[in-house]
Specification:
18 helices; about 50% helix; mainly alpha; two-stranded antiparallel ribbon; 3-stranded antiparallel beta sheet; about 575 residues
Length: about 575
């Protein structure tokens, strides 16, 4: 998959042959030890590996900065309208702050391990999906907004208007990651069950969202699920087929709806009708043009004086461009892009396919909604009326966006798990520059620092393998000495780890790594472990006794008895 980790490079050079000059780097150029943590992947931040903690900190910092910036711009863009309609210029700011507080509470619950991680893979996700499906059905009958905004998308709960389509985004992402992981990672479901679950899970909510009507949210969710399928290895033929089908369905939806056709015409030429269908598009262009390079300054926008409708909602980017100019808008976009890139780094370090798909799906849906809003305001694509994530005013939007961010953060938290390789690696000796007897240091895990064996053997003292049962007799009847047994030597320039000289073979190269002495006589090494004395079948026993004849073979019957057979 695209987010597989890079493999570590192999060592540059091995030990030099005997008599050849060494080509390895000096000790001073060796890779830093784990106790210094100087490598990118070896550093630790607050006890967490830097490869996991760095993108987490970048993601969280960018998220908080964008949310605080959103509160500032909501106040700047809505102060005039709020003062006239509600008697207070702080009205929309207070409400957005309350919604954001609720979202960060959910962020702490989801990202702070208050919910068990296996819960996101359990069957409870299907029950939550059924609840969202019920809300999507209810909004078609009891929803409001048809007279004001041309669509029935909100359920009035008294203290705020709930938009079920926004709630459906994180639920569909979690369920999609679960289904794909069950099939591609665990193999707990077969291909038929996988297709049935996908055909039930995705088309039903998308059809209900489309009937509100809300084409923008339908496109955002469909593109996200399609991207997750591509990450799992969807064949390109299927990708091309789905793309063509989606294009045909989108064209049919535009032709079947008059107001969608008007939006398409306004996108193609907004100046053809600047006071009707192209009104918002032309005013957004004028707002960016009047902002110039550095903008008019925060709070000095003129479009918010009832010129640009929904200035604090869908078109808040136009106010940002007018007040902060090109430079301020570019910085805001770069911060959002940095947050999305950090989210993809988080999903690359995820330990399982389910976690990778969950984090990548949440990052993709945030990026797609951001691009649709920005491109719509800039006139690159038709405007779909989708809010800018974390910035536009809206209770359901900010809560759903923070839940998506919490899922990404939770994947980063779950990435810092100890694997079997980590446990084995923690028990390994770390190579350094000083011996444990010289410095007495101990590693963080409690073991001794054996760094004094750099360039030498870590075997320690000479160990001689004892012979069995007093040694094996030789051809002469004498016992083979321990000299022919295996002996481990602690070689190296400085001798053993305690600094004492080491035993070397004569004629061997100076320095080098530890070696095993197999003895000087190859014939002795090839003898069996236990050998009986040779018997002269002419009556003399002993390895050195003279033979009476040239024929040393025993009689036929004696050879048969040695093989386990007997004469008839």
């Amino acid at each position: 998959m695209w987010f597989s980790k890079n493999k570590e490079s192999a060592p540059e050079s091995g030990p030099s042959p005997a008599g050849a000059p060494s080509t390895s780097r000096p000790k001073t150029h060796r890779r830093a030890t784990a106790t210094s943590h100087s490598g990118w992947g070896e550093k630790y931040i607050a006890g967490v590996p830097a490869r996991i903690m760095r993108p987490r900190l970048v993601f969280l910092s960018c998220l908080i900065a964008i949310c605080m910036f959103g509160l500032l711009m909501i106040y700047s863009a809505s102060s005039v309208e709020s003062l006239q309609e509600n008697g207070s210029s702080w009205f929309f700011l207070y409400r957005q702050a309350i919604f954001m507080f609720i979202g960060f509470v959910l962020f702490a619950v989801i990202g702070g391990r208050l919910l068990p991680w296996p819960l996101f893979r359990s069957q409870l996700v299907w029950w939550v999906w059924l609840g969202v499906l019920a809300l999507l059905i209810a909004v078609l009958f009891v929803g409001r907004g048809a007279e004001e905004w041309g669509a029935s998308r909100w359920i009035d709960l008294g203290f705020f208007n709930l938009q079920p389509a926004e709630v459906a985004k994180p639920v569909i992402i979690v369920l999609t990651a679960k289904i794909f992981a069950d099939y591609f990672e665990d193999g707990s479901i077969d291909a038929r069950t996988f297709l049935v679950q996908m055909l039930v899970m995705l088309p039903l909510p998308l059809f209900l969202i489309f009937k509100e009507p809300d084409l923008g949210t339908t496109i955002i969710i469909a593109l996200t699920v399609f991207a997750i399928a591509i990450l799992c290895g969807l064949p390109w033929r299927v990708v091309a087929f789905v793309t063509v089908v989606a294009f045909l369905l989108g064209a049919a939806a535009i032709v079947a709806s008059p107001y969608r056709a008007k939006r398409l015409l306004a996108f193609l030429d907004p100046w053809s009708d600047p006071y009707d269908t192209g009104y918002q598009a032309t005013l957004a262009i004028m707002a960016f043009a009047s902002g110039g390079l550095f903008g008019r300054g925060i709070g000095n926008s003129t479009m918010k004086y009832h010129y640009l409708p929904e200035a604090h909602n869908d078109y808040i980017l136009a106010i940002i461009g007018e007040e902060l100019g090109f430079v301020g808008t570019a910085i805001f976009v770069l911060v959002f892009v940095a947050m999305i890139i950090a989210a993809f780094y988080i999903c690359r370090e995820a330990p399982t396919l389910h976690a990778q798909l969950l984090a990548s799906g949440c990052a993709i849906i945030l990026a797609v909604q951001f691009l649709i809003n920005v491109f719509g305001i800039l006139g690159i694509m038709p405007m779909t009326g989708k809010p800018l994530p974390f910035v536009s005013y809206g209770g359901s939007s900010i809560i759903a966006s923070l839940v998506l961010a919490a899922l990404i953060f939770r994947v980063s938290v779950e990435s810092n798990v100890e694997t079997a390789a980590d446990r084995r690696r923690s028990g390994m000796a770390v190579m350094g520059e000083r011996s444990p007897r010289a410095s007495g240091r101990r590693l963080a895990g409690g073991g001794d620092d054996v760094s004094g064996h750099v360039g030498r053997s870590t075997a320690g003292e000479v160990r001689v393998r004892p012979t069995r049962r007093g040694g094996a007799p030789s051809r002469s009847g004498r016992t083979v000495s321990n000299r022919s047994s295996l002996s481990v030597y602690d070689g190296g320039r400085g001798g053993r780890g305690d600094g004492s000289p080491t035993r070397r073979e004569s004629g061997g190269p100076a320095g080098g790594y530890g070696r095993v002495d197999l003895g000087s006589d190859a014939g002795e090494r090839l003898r069996p472990r236990r050998e009986r004395p040779r018997v002269d079948y002419h009556g003399v026993t002993g390895g050195d006794a003279p033979r009476r004849s040239g024929d040393d073979r025993p009689p036929r019957g004696m050879r048969d008895r040695e093989r386990g057979r007997y004469d008839r």
